[in-house]
């Protein structure tokens, strides 16, 4: 590289170093806030105060503001004029709409993955199922959810269809927000849920595309074999309400 060209590049780096550092800080703040929303540490309706976050992190307010704007673009935060940003409140209807989109994607991903999955990819899924079991043993729902999300992302990659993988990457952040994957309010047997993921891997390992597709679709739609106690409670609530009426 010619010295004058090299010198120009060095000058460019020097001019942009502060901007680059701010970008890195913004990314770190974004990941921190995003994880807090996903884990439920920041709950629906909670206000996100940029100045307070900046003070506690020991950074300027600019990278925090950029991170907050990014989260708002993704739909995790909503802006209320003259009041600030708040964590979105998700309705049951929103979650159902997300599952309606997720179900056909999971069906197709499993159908294709059963035909194309490799031994290495199966081992990766087995390891994620083991992480779920470890998370259950440690009563760590957050870690379970992370492993679960990775599990379904890997399956989308195993399908061998780059367009499908890109579609999953588009909706995955929203699914995290909507709690459509590993619902933290799930009131059932988490160990059984981990075993259910092991069963899904076995179906992919067997190579039966139709059975795998049906099982993954049921899993995505909440029709799987692991019951949620909240569902069994609903009729009793309705009956009680009718009795009071």
What's a concise summary of this model?
This protein is mainly alpha-helical and 245 residues long. 74% of the residues lie in helices and 4% in strands. Strands 1-3-2 form a three-stranded antiparallel β-sheet.
Topology:
Elements (H helix, E strand, L loop, with lengths): L2 H37 L7 E2 L1 H8 L3 H14 L2 E4 L3 E4 L4 H25 L2 H19 L3 H18 L3 H16 L12 H17 L2 H12 L8 H16 L1
Antiparallel strand pairs: 1-3, 2-3
Helix pairs in contact: 1-3, 2-3, 4-6, 4-7, 4-8, 4-9, 5-6, 5-8, 6-7
Write structural notes for this entry.
By secondary structure, the chain is mostly helical. The chain is built from ten helices and three strands. A three-stranded antiparallel β-sheet has the order 1-3-2. Strand 2 and strand 3 (84-87) form a beta hairpin. Helix 1 packs across helix 3, helix 4 (92-116) runs antiparallel to helix 7 (162-177) and helix 5 packs antiparallel against helix 8 (190-206). The radius of gyration is 22 Å and the shape is globular. 27% of the residues are buried.
Q: What descriptive keywords fit this protein?
A:
245 residues; mainly alpha; three-stranded antiparallel beta sheet; disordered C terminus; 10 helices
Total beta strands: 3
Strands ordered across the widest β-sheet:
1-3-2
Which parts are unreliable, with pLDDT below 50 for 5 consecutive residues or more?
A: 234-245
Helix content: over 70%
Q: What string, H for helix and E for strand, traces the elements in order?
A: HEHHEEHHHHHHH
Structural class call reads mainly alpha
Mean pLDDT: 82
- Main sheet attributes: strand count, strand direction, barrel closure: 3 strands, antiparallel
Dominant shape: globular
Task: Report the sheet-strand fraction.
Answer: under 5%
- Radius of gyration, whole Å: 22 Å
Please tally the helical runs, counting DSSP H or I stretches of 4 or more residues.
10
Ends apart, CA distance between termini: 84 Å
């Amino acid at each position: 590289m010619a010295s004058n060209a090299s010198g120009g590049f060095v000058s460019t780096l020097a001019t942009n170093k502060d901007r680059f550092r701010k970008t890195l800080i913004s990314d770190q703040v974004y990941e921190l806030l995003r994880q807090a929303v996903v884990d439920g540490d920041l709950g629906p309706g909670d206000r996100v105060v940029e100045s307070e976050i900046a003070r506690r992190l020991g950074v300027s307010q600019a990278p925090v503001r950029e991170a907050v704007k990014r989260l708002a673009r993704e739909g995790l935060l909503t802006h209320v004029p003259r009041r600030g940003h708040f964590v979105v409140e998700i309705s049951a209807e929103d979650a159902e709409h997300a599952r309606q989109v997720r179900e056909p994607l999971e069906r197709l991903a499993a159908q294709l993955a059963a035909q194309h999955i490799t031994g290495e990819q199966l081992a990766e899924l087995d390891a994620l199922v083991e992480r779920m079991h470890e998370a259950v043993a440690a009563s760590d729902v957050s870690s379970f959810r992370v492993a679960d999300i990775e599990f379904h992302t890997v399956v989308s990659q195993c399908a061998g269809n780059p367009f499908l993988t890109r579609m999953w990457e588009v909706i995955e952040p929203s699914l995290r927000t909507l709690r459509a994957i590993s619902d933290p309010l799930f009131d059932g047997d988490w160990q059984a849920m981990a075993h259910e993921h092991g069963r899904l891997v076995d179906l992919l390992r067997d190579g039966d595309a139709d059975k795998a597709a049906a099982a993954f679709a049921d899993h995505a739609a909440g029709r799987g074999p692991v019951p949620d106690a909240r569902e069994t409670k609903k009729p009793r609530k309705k009956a009680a309400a009718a009795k009071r009426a």
